[in-house]
Design brief:
Blueprint: E1 8-12, E2 15-19, H1 29-36, H2 39-64, E3 67-68, H3 75-86, E4 95-96, H4 99-128, E5 134-136, E6 140-145, E7 148-157, E8 163-177, E9 183-189, E10 196-200, E11 203-209, H5 221-226, E12 230-239, E13 244-253, E14 257-259, E15 261-263, E16 267-269, E17 275-277, E18 285-287
């Protein structure tokens, strides 16, 4: 297996990992890289590739000549002839006139067909890929609920339709001391009061009761900081329109956990059998009285 000495940076939520001695990057990885870009960066990357190819072929046309209708030494003419050729437009005012130019235009036309096919596939996948459109609360709260200390996290569905067969998880990890004197990273799947819903239309609060069986039992802000606690919340469901599975997640560090606070109520009944959900208050918390 070929390895590279160059470090690879990978960000997962708020945590950045630097991988050393990983497998070498292959050209086929470019497809996944393009799919992972935001739309502005994707457009910029496509523009750079397109301009670079045209500049390359324009340089070759300028050096070799053989294009009838092109002014001598005109790089601008060579560039726009390349634009016409790579798009197989061929306006007719410029054309190849010798073997060198014909071979070069053949190569460029083949390159253009390949480029259009790849970019069309990338754009189709980006448009057709279902998105979760789930928002997580900016913080996690720990406070008494119905007489029991409870960890709570709020999630909201931003879609204009319900997500179906939704599954919820909260993953908890921290450093714990070993009898040998060192520390080790331990991972726990927090038990939720509910972790599945047949339909997820609006917003809800995930709840984990902190009892004697919870890894958070007896936790304090100081102990969470000392053990470098990280929480990872995930939602997996089905978009009923496609239909296709969608997934999203959010991570929280000990800095994002607030004690003795709870989320404000965001549901109101208008009296006509409808519930109003105020997403503007989805992140808002209030101190617990007493």
């Amino acid at each position: 297996m070929k390895r590279t000495r160059n470090p690879v940076s990978l960000r997962s939520g708020q945590i950045e990992f630097v991988k050393l001695n990983t497998e070498k990057w292959e050209w086929r990885d470019a497809y996944q890289w393009f799919l992972g870009l935001t739309w502005p960066r994707f457009a910029a990357a496509v523009g750079v590739v397109y301009l670079s190819l045209n500049l390359l072929f324009a340089t070759l046309y300028s050096l070799g000549g053989g294009i009838s209708g092109m002014r001598d030494g005109s790089f601008v003419d060579a560039f726009f002839f390349s634009v016409q050729t790579i798009a197989t437009v061929g306006y007719g005012n410029m054309s190849p006139s010798n073997l060198y130019a014909n071979i070069l235009t053949t190569i460029e036309i083949m390159t253009g067909i390949f480029l259009v096919a790849v970019m069309a596939g990338l754009i189709f996948v980006r448009f057709s890929r279902p998105m979760a459109h789930i928002v997580f609360s900016r913080s996690v709260v720990i406070a008494p609920l119905n007489g029991r200390t409870t960890l709570m996290l709020r999630v909201g569905n931003l879609h204009q339709r319900s997500m179906v067969e939704a599954e919820f998880r909260i993953f908890f990890n921290r450093d714990e001391p070993l009898v040998e004197g060192d520390t080790f990273r331990y991972f726990y799947n927090l038990k939720l009061q509910f972790d599945r819903m047949p339909t997820f239309p609006a917003a809800l609060t995930l709840r984990h009761v902190i009892d004697e069986n919870s890894p958070l039992y007896g936790a304090t802000p100081e102990s969470l900081e000392e053990s470098r606690v990280v929480l990872i919340a995930s939602v997996v469901g089905i978009d009923p329109v496609i239909p296709a599975a969608v997934q999203t997640q959010q991570d929280y560090t000990w800095r994002d956990i607030r004690f003795n606070e709870r989320f404000v109520e965001i549901y109101t009944d208008d009296g006509n059998g409808r519930l109003t959900v105020d997403y503007g208050q989805l992140h808002d918390t209030e101190p617990v009285e007493g």
